[in-house]
Amino acid sequence: MYRFFVEKEQIGEKEITILGEDVNHIARVLRMHPGEEILISDKDSMDYRCEIKELLNDKILATILDVEGVNRELGAKIYLYQALPKSTKMELVIQKAVELGACGIGPMETARCVVKLDEKKKKSKQERWLSVSESAAKQSKRVIIPEVFPVQSFKKVLEETACFEYRLFCYEGAVNYSQTHALICQVKPGDRVAIFIGPEGGFAPSEVAMALEAGCKEVSLGHRILRTETAGLAILSALMLALEGKKEV
């Protein structure tokens, strides 16, 4: 069953109004008709099983058949801060991070980033990345669309995450595997977690010093050197499994 997202104000007592790009997608791409069922999610983790009632030029009306709360979110709010990678790797990172439960992805500019974006390019890239996030959220049946933040400097991200319960700084020089395991196990529902991943060339020594001085905890991802597009997904997977287990207790 296809899933779509709406704002709270679009939900009525017995009916939901679908607006925007989804109108064209439902009517002309999916070629759906009145009587077909769809799933609609809001930002309060509620799922609405609906039946399409009417397709108009600028909106679609759907009758609510059933309402249920869902438990697909991890509980902890995990943010992946990824240094800008080369080519289209950022799209892969966003897609998989959304599938694994991240609630936000923050592209970062770091000292060793090969990719340099001007302001116009940053805006167009962010629009594309938001589209990737929405598509991945629909596919994985998330009840929220994870935000993709504007590109920021590493220093700025450190400042903005200073109040988070956990800030996990992943880099190849970290060797304390027991600390990594302990940190993952400590994260609990309600916590805010920032994950920092460097570019292809890794973090510069000055950035490592800056992160540790700011109170970040160094994290090791094992004896193997992972590609930048793999590293964040590796620790996200570990956090996802640890948090899913806590939801079942």
Please explain how this structure is put together.
This protein is an alpha/beta fold. It folds into two domains: 3-69, Hypothetical PUA domain-like, domain 1 (Ribosomal Protein L25, Chain P, Beta Barrel), CATH 2.40.240.20; 77-248, SPOUT methyltransferase, trefoil knot domain (Alpha/beta knot, 3-Layer(aba) Sandwich), CATH 3.40.1280.10. The chain has helices at 21-29, 89-99, 119-139, 154-160, 177-186, 205-213, 228-248; strands spanning 3-5, 15-18, 37-41, 46-55, 60-69, 77-83, 104-109, 147-148, 152-153, 166-170, 192-197, 217-219. The strands form two sheets. Strands 6, 7, 8, 9, 10, 11 and 12 form a seven-stranded parallel sheet that branches. Strand 6 (77-83), helix 2 (89-99) and strand 7 (104-109) form a beta-alpha-beta unit. 33% of the residues are buried. The model has no long low-confidence stretch (mean pLDDT 92).
Topology:
Elements: E1 3-5, E2 15-18, H1 21-29, E3 37-41, E4 46-55, E5 60-69, E6 77-83, H2 89-99, E7 104-109, H3 119-139, E8 147-148, E9 152-153, H4 154-160, E10 166-170, H5 177-186, E11 192-197, H6 205-213, E12 217-219, H7 228-248
Parallel strand pairs: 1-3, 6-7, 6-11, 7-8, 7-9, 10-11, 10-12
Antiparallel strand pairs: 2-5, 3-4, 4-5
Helix pairs in contact: 2-3, 2-7
